[in-house]
């Protein structure tokens, strides 16, 4: 016969297995299932009315309202010729002279901004590398091609004092003393 210990061990295993299998379902409570309401789209819409019909009308004959012959246009009662006009009036006419007026540049933005012209380099690649470095440091740097040189420009900015402080900072960074210039937006 089996010992009491074996009976207790088998009973404990059965109770634990029932607890693991059955109790979660019993204690879980009522399960709610969420189901989305899906409205299907009909393949062919159902029409409440009959199919629309259109009446095709026959073309109207307007031949009675047209003139029997083609219309002729008469201008100043003179026949039109395909030869170039060589009348005396046209030979004496000269083309009007073209007068070109130079308009002075009106820059209404004279005091609108300032820039720092930092340096002019022959190598465009070096100028681009310097501009990238300055942009990484937070400066508004640009290049401008002029007379075979690539100029490095900082700005524009409306605050002259801010750019004056930046001139000192840029001299420490690049070793080049920049010039503070007025910014002309129409002719930069």
TrEMBL record:
GO MF: peptidoglycan binding
Residue ranges of domain SPOR in the record: 108-183
InterPro entries found in the cross-reference section: Cell_div_SPOR-domain, SPOR-like_dom, SPOR-like_sf
Biological process (GO), any one: cytokinetic process
GO cellular component: cell division site; cell septum
Source organism superkingdom: Bacteria
Name assigned to this protein: SPOR domain-containing protein
Organism, scientific name: Vibrio sinensis
